[in-house]
Amino acid sequence: MSEQQKMLSDMVDSLFAELGSSAAVIDAWDRIEELGLPSLLVAEVQGGFGGSWDDARVVFRLAGYHALSLPVVEAVIANLIASPHGAEGRGTIASASEGRFADGHFTGVVKGAVASEGASFIVAPSLDGGALVLRTADGLRQARETLSGEARDVWMFDGAPAKHSKVDLFRLGAFARVAQISGALDGALSLSVDYVNERKQFGRPLAKFQAVQQNLATFAGEAAAANCAAVGAAQGLGRGAGGFEVASAKLRANRAAGTGAAIAHQVHGAIGFTNEYCLHRLTRKLWTWRSEFGGDSFWSAYLGKQVLERGADLFWADLTARTD
Amino acid sequence: MPSAKLGLVRAGRNSAIDRSFTLQTFIAHPIPWPDNAAALRAKVRELIAGHPAPADPAYRANSWCVPDPTFSRKLGAAGLIGMIWPKAYGGHERSSLERYVVLEELLAAGAPVGAHWMADRQHGGMLLRYGTEEERQRWIPGMARGEIYSCIGLSEPNAGSDLASVRTTARRRGDRWVIDGQKVWTTGAHFAHVMIALVRSEEGSERGVGLSQFVIPMDAPGVTIKPIIDLTGGHDFNEVFFDSVELPETALVGEEGQGWRQATAELSLERSGPERYLSSTSLLLELIRHVGPNASAEVCSLIGRLTADLWTLRMMSASVAARLAAGQDPALEATIVKDLGNSFEQAMPTLVQAAIDLDMADPAPIARILNHLLQVSPSFSLRGGTSEILKGIIARGLGLR
Ligand SMILES: Cc1cc2nc3c(=O)[nH]c(=O)nc-3n(C[C@H](O)[C@H](O)[C@H](O)COP(=O)(O)OP(=O)(O)OC[C@H]3O[C@@H](n4cnc5c(N)ncnc54)[C@H](O)[C@@H]3O)c2cc1C
């Protein structure tokens, strides 16, 4: 980690720890703006922080680790795509769009808009693999929530002015979720380790039981895999389009999220199943993120098809050429 | 709302995730891939292409256990063994990441590298570090040429996972050491020239105390090698008996009584390489070839998942290599990579078997390779430390033991 990245990481770590999983946009968004976080990926010449993909990974990971309730990750990506188009105010992203875009106008539906109430603009994936930038003032919001209480709104637009971007938002959304999953897994692992060292049964801490140790070792491996996948995805984006890397990373992180969340709950027993204890703040997000911006079936079909088209003889050569 | 009933919730209230000190088990190190990586790969690929393919395609699987002295000599002549050793001992003074590139190329292609693998991976380096000058001169240049092979003398009948209970002894007799006892599961003992053995050099000592390492020439009088045939009918590992085997003083590797420390350091090298996740790669490649571009959705998605796993493991494995290259000791990370890597290479044969229909007696490469891997893959999570033992090490790293 460079000196600059370390500073960014420390700063963001303490802010996210403080804001945690309950801060509301209306009260706390200023704190995020003060640090200039939303323009993390915006070029310096455009007044942004000019951060790298790995800087973004570090920030997104910490948002996952602290189960941050504020849509910082989404704002960072929305600004990267929308700032060249002059968008202002708080932006967020959506995970799908259906409809027609022609002559700079969009008619249709945008789905999965994250915490979009009060946002100024939304960036949604377009059908051609790019993105559309839409003003919320031009649309109609229908509030929707996941079962775990996360706002994923639907928006209707009718002939709304829209800007088109070639940036593959869906891919960036998947990258963001990988980094968040990697952080949330480390967070849940950390909770689990603390818990089993404290909780006693049969006269000793749970940590002393080999079955518990082996489960948590498996969990650590999954968390490690998700973290490395996130690093690899950031490198892939830094080197080029990153399609292969992000696909692989999301697929791997999705699996890690499933295994990790299950073990975290298992070692916590009933307490982890309560609303009061904080584990669910992480695990319920993990379960949501697994589906967003491509679940296992989507990315495995994407990757499998790509690999099969290239054939066996190019498999290893392609893999190594991506890093050499 | 604090409540007596949920007293334990307090542990979670001001909890790990609300603190601004975040746990990170695996530090992913940026990997400075060598500038000449592509050229090195080309060189290795050319060498493999010029070497006759194995008669049975099954031998492209788990290929670091397939000995082929002719191929080893070719690699030696091309400067691809002992790449990081000093030139004075026949090495090539390359960087360890250059070596890593060569290793992953060889393994991914299923090249028969079993003869020299242990010498290149651990024993050459260990002799350079701890061995006496006589022993270095005697063994290392031949190892670098791909002509001298070595084997690992750790396990004994009553010392498997519990390695600290080794009972083979070394006793001083005048200016000689005398070895008595037995090793078992010794891979390659029947073609190796030399063993590095962990033995008890202090009478009455227990556990990790009083152990030392020795270089034992396999043709020394008193050494007897008995084959152990594995479940495939193959002969890879052996029993090795020592009956008053006399060694010169120079055969002691490192310090007397420091064997445990030295041997466990060797284990982290033994555990961290790319062979710990690439043993089944030939099956993935053969599957891609077998099903072709119009594969069913099920197989296509399996290939996607295996690819994602392989890509991730490569990142993890190379990251460990990069940290070793930077002079750090990523023992915990290395253990995680071996455990995950072994699970991956072990799971692949059953996943592939479930996804395609095959005649198990078909001589086609896909069936031969799959069959072979179904049978040998149980050993992947045993050799080099079982998955349970590895998870125990990881648990210790997490602060659970
Ligand atoms: C193909 C192959 C090649 C090998 N090559 C070599 C070689 O070249 N040189 C060499 O020295 N050795 C070699 N070995 C031996 C290998 O290191 C041992 O098999 C391994 O250390 C396990 O020892 P064991 O077989 O005695 O099993 P055991 O230790 O008896 O274990 C049996 C089972 O019990 C479990 N177990 C044991 N202790 C515990 C515990 N404390 N907690 C939980 N579970 C436990 C194990 O995980 C395992 O599942 C080789 C093994 C194989 C399979």
TrEMBL record, chain A:
Keyword Flavoprotein tagged: yes
Entry annotated with the keyword Flavoprotein: yes
Keyword set, alphabetical order: FAD, Flavoprotein, Oxidoreductase
Protein name: Acyl-CoA/acyl-ACP dehydrogenase
Xref: PANTHER family: ACYL-COA DEHYDROGENASE (PTHR43884), ACYL-COA DEHYDROGENASE FADE28 (PTHR43884:SF20)
Family the UniProt entry places it in: Belongs to the acyl-CoA dehydrogenase family.
Organism in which the protein naturally occurs: Novosphingobium cyanobacteriorum
Cited SUPFAM superfamilies: Acyl-CoA dehydrogenase C-terminal domain-like, Acyl-CoA dehydrogenase NM domain-like
Gene3D superfamilies listed in its UniProt record: Butyryl-CoA Dehydrogenase, subunit A, domain 3 (1.20.140.10)
Sequence ranges assigned to domain Acyl-CoA dehydrogenase/oxidase C-terminal in this UniProt record: 172-285
